[in-house]
What does this fold into?
Amino acid sequence: MTKSTSTLNAGDPVISLHNVSKWYGQFQCLHNVSLDVGKGERVVVCGPSGSGKSTLIRCINRLEVHQEGQIVVKGLEMTDNIKSIDAIRRNIGMVFQNFNLFPHLTVLENLTLGPTLTRQMKKADADELAMHFLRKVRIPEQAQKYPLQLSGGQQQRVAIARSLCMEPEIMLFDEPTSALDPEMIKEVLDTMIELAQSGMTMIVVTHEMGFARTVADNVVFMADGRKIESAPPEEFFGNPREERTRAFLDQILKH
Amino acid sequence: MTTASPQFPAALPAYDPLARISAGDWLKKNLFGSVWQGLLTLITAAIFLRFAWFVLDWGVINAVWYTSDPDVCRAAAGACWAVIVEKHRPMLFGLYPYDEHWRLVLMMAIYLVTIVVSLMPRNWNLRLLVPLWVIAVVSIGVLMFGGVLGLRYVPTSEWGGLPLTMLLFTGTVLFGMPVAVLLALGRRSPLPVARGVSVVFIEALRGVPLITILFVAVNVFPLFLPAGVEVNKLLRITIGIAIFFACYQAEVIRGGLQAIPRGQYEAAASLSLTYWQTTRRIILPQALRICLPAITNHIIAAMKNTSFVIIIGLFDILTATTAVMQDPLWRKFYVEAYLFVAGVYLFFGYALSLYARKVEGWIASGRI
Ligand SMILES: Nc1ncnc2c1ncn2[C@@H]1O[C@H](COP(=O)(O)OP(=O)(O)O)[C@@H](O)[C@H]1O
Ligand SMILES: [Mg+2]
It folds into this structure.
């Protein structure tokens, strides 16, 4: 049993943020944000642009460093300690708005790089694992192509498969469909829905309210670096408590 | 007042990229479009023809190709290529003992085969390259130094000519490129010490002429060594040239590193790759591809910097030729001799350019 699981009791949240604050220079972009995510829970984060959504989830795998508060992932606190950062990152997959695939590697190489380098997997095993996840995202026939030869939707599905090859317990998505043409959004969302149904713990920053309604256990609304409101989707969409949430929903659902 | 009817421009002639034009039309359009243009064309053609005629007349028609008598050359109106035939051995091999020149010929053959094999992408696997290079380095070492297998020992102070140029050049690139990469990485490192050392190193060495660095490597550096320790002069000067090369190359590579978007680092971090895994597998392959043309540029320049070995009294191909041309009997024909050396440089320089262009093609087509 690794240290990361030993301190965790059943029912404890897998991700727990407690009063997290962050500044860029003088500018405070997160104000005392607290959030608990249980195992298998799906949380959708929404809010106006610049409200700190990306910053928040990037703090969870330390692509950004928070200055105050606590971030605990599977019982392990995120500190400067390189070992704890590494242990936490191994449990977390991340999908970016711009895919961030490695353009000089084939799709298959993109997928096997992590497993062979950080999980010491043999090449044949890694290839098999990669093909397994490429079938899951329904593009096994693209394995030998380079990322830039694929459509945006296909690239994003490759990116999802790449994260899954690390067999993480938690997946973070930062506006995974915002860079896509409308006709490709559905294929990516379908992949994410299947992933959610498989029991993956997910935090998804998105403006796709349809996705939030079908998949989310909880919807979080952020504005100006603060968590304004958090509620299950029926309540969040049907009866938002805060004025700002209502204004945001009015705006976004009108379109 | 009458209302002006709208003026429609005449329809543009349809552009057909595949249209063929006749030779006459092409000439008219590109060379004799106007009086002024026609005049320029004629003047250029006249200058070119005059030069071409001179080359033909001097270099071929009236040239002396083969004689061991310099007076025959003096009597001729054209070039004396015979000087190259006569003097090619000291020019190509410098001070290396005359009877041992066959060793250098063999060494160059091994060298060229090794390089050509190593440059072909289909041979890029370590199981071939490691044994190949071990064999090449050992056999070239044995051939150059001797002292074993009944070969006469030849100290580095007697090395020279084209083999010396080749060794210096290869040493510079093989030693300089990794240093350049490390300096470039260091300059962008999050560690203040690594950054500081790299910045000081690059800025200090880029700011002084190569000759100064070589002077330090040759004359000052030994003063810092403990008594009794001696580092071969040739090695010292190779390292000097290599470090100078590395400082310029580091800045080129840094440009390539800067072109890599932040998302690449973030994706690598989210796969929990380490710094060196990220650098080696994600960042450098992309960065080096981006700045390959500029890298090639400095590599070609490095080939020519090898002539600086003169300052330790070694004769590379250029200096060896200068020395050979001191011979009063043949001194008059130094132009032909230097043209020959220029041809050798041009051959290697152009081969490098062609190869670099090929690599760019392979990269563009995704082959490497
Ligand atoms: N690297 C940075 N330096 C300074 N300010 C930043 C940086 N990244 C983000 N910000 C600021 O922090 C705030 C939150 O940004 P972000 O988390 O990207 O918002 P969102 O993802 O909700 O659009 C914004 O006001 C943004 O301008
Ligand atoms: Mg964002």
Residues 229 and 242 of chain A are 7 Å apart (CA to CA). The pocket of magnesium ion (ligand 2) is lined by residues A 53-54, 174-175 (CB under 6 Å).
